[in-house]
Amino acid sequence: MSASVEQSPVWISATGCITAFGSAAETHAAMLAGQRALALQPVLGSAGGDPVPLALVPGRSLDETVPPNWIHALMPLAQSVPEAPWGTARFPVFITSSNFGVGSLYAFQQTKHAEHLCYGTPFATVEWMRQKFGWGANVAVLSHACVSAHLGLLLATRAFQTGWAERALVFSFDFVSPFVGGGFHALKILNHEFPAPYAARATGSIGLGDGAAFAVLEKTRPTPGEAFQLNAQSLYNEMHHFTANRADGAGFAACLDPVREFAGDRRVWVKGHGTGTLEAGRLEAETLARLFPGAPLVSWKGSIGHTLGSCGLVELALAAESLRTGKVPGTIGAAGPFFSDQVRTEPFAAGDYDAVLLTSNAFGGAHAACLLSHG
Amino acid sequence: MVERYLQVLRTDAPGLEDIATTRQRLAGAFPRNATRRMTQLGLLLGGVLQEITLRDDDVVVYCSVYAESRALEDFLVSFPSASPTLFQTSIHPSALQQVLISRQQSVREVFPHTGRSQLVAHALRAAVLNDAPRVILCGGEERGSWLLERGAASDDAFAFAAVLTREPADAMASVRLSLTDDEDGAFGLPEFFLALHQRQPIERDIAPGLHLSLSWT
């Protein structure tokens, strides 16, 4: 197997996110304090079902509404995106999600209220959002489960290389619904246990969280102001099994190897995928320990939950906040023994490192990784 | 302007064919017993990809507006005892994963697109924005049932797969994407499929700032 790395550096001039804790700054502070937003709730909302760990944005119910109630959380985030003629020819937008408004189809099936159908397909959801946000029609829509956000970052980066973009906006979102909760519960990985990423324990479990994020990409370093550099990006798709990875971890290595080569002697810390499942967590932790020996490894999904298709960008925004403040939250909700002795549960100083490696994984053995540094 | 060359094209337009007939017709495209749980879109996609030997360093760009409508319908109906199989089968880009997993074919980069009016433009843009020697551009739809009655699924079934290269030798067609200052432009997937299926030339704005020229040799 082989993989290559996108080495064209690109600058991130602005980024932000929302989670169940609030903004990137509020989420980062809560995670530094070791807080967990996940709480046990019925998997099907008011229809009941087993209690499972969910982290919804404040004031939002799991029950679907018309229009979808998550728009109230998304609007302030969209309004915080720096102004530009987004969605016009030279200012492309890349929207990524795993679920879009599919919860509305679940609501239609349950209630037979046709109004829900207006938000049920990806294009209908994105068109509605685009008009609410005042963006033009140049909005690409990508969906590759939990690596979706990384695809938007990579394609936005490449749009600069051909001169097809002056600036680019990547916008990712996923909000929990009974549809997705019921699906993961059926797979038995969303259960009554809280996630404990990378912990070697008897039962694997994940938690699901609301999340949305954005990043504004620029070809050259913006001045004045703070910026982050996306140094390298890598993808790899095992296509071995829908819900399992190759047993030897080769898929993880195929994605990470070229990033390691690019990183060279840089001192890195790692924000891993770390959902709380056992086999994928073990393969990920062991591969990272082998390829990046000594690099501290954290996962934040034990706190904010797995924000699915938005996780790559939500966690990038939180990593940027860590670089900005100099403090990296540890892995929350987990205690040893771990699959790797590089797992950190306590906060540590970002200043001891040159860059952060951000990884995400998805159904079908999809892998994504990128290297982020403070410009 | 960026130009690529279409070396291989396969299309399938089964129209109203039901999934059982599709499964029977395309059984030879898959390993034994692999088709049992495949969706119609997965079967159609596997059929058009059958004669294309994928390589690890290929980039795959996949596009579908509605994707696995039937699996989605069945998953929704399965509540409150949600089906784990239908859940994973309903997730984009399931059809492509069904095919590549059945072939145990890993690939470097996969860019699954959805959307509607600019779907073709953005899939083509992704297909040319990389340094890979080959790009597989593929996609399709399956015909929905109760979601179709509500306007939330495709009313047609089709699939296509195209191999794009940087080298013009022996090409069937050239694909040119160029920048324009026009802020209009749209091009739907069914329309694009029809042009490929019938080997029709294309000359039009397909998204804000993007113009497509498709010329057959």
Structural commentary:
The complex is a heterodimer of chains A (375) and B (217). Chain A is α/β, with parallel strands linked by helices and 375 residues long. Chain A has helices at residues 24-32, 71-79, 102-111, 122-133, 148-161, 178-186, 250-263, 278-291, 301-304, 311-325, and strands at 5-6, 10-19, 22-23, 39-42, 51-55, 93-96, 139-142, 167-174, 208-209, 211-218, 228-237, 268-271, 297-298, 327-328, 348-349, 355-362, 366-374. Chain A has one domain (1-375): Thiolase/Chalcone synthase (Peroxisomal Thiolase, Chain A, domain 1, 3-Layer(aba) Sandwich). Chain A has ten helices and 17 strands. The two termini of chain A are 33 Å apart. The model of chain A has no long low-confidence stretch (mean pLDDT 96). Chain B is of the alpha+beta class. In chain B, strands 3-2-4-5-1-6-8-7 form an eight-stranded mixed β-sheet, sandwiched between helices. In chain B, helix 2 crosses helix 5 and helix 3 (69-77) packs antiparallel against helix 4. The chains are: A alpha/beta (375), B alpha+beta (217). Chains A and B meet through helix 3, helix 4, strand 7, helix 5 and helix 6 of A and helix 3, helix 4, helix 5, strand 3 and helix 6 of B. Strand 7 of chain A pairs antiparallel with strand 3 of chain B.
How is this structure best summarized?
The complex is a heterodimer of chains A (about 375) and B (about 220). Chain A is α/β, with parallel strands linked by helices and about 375 residues long.
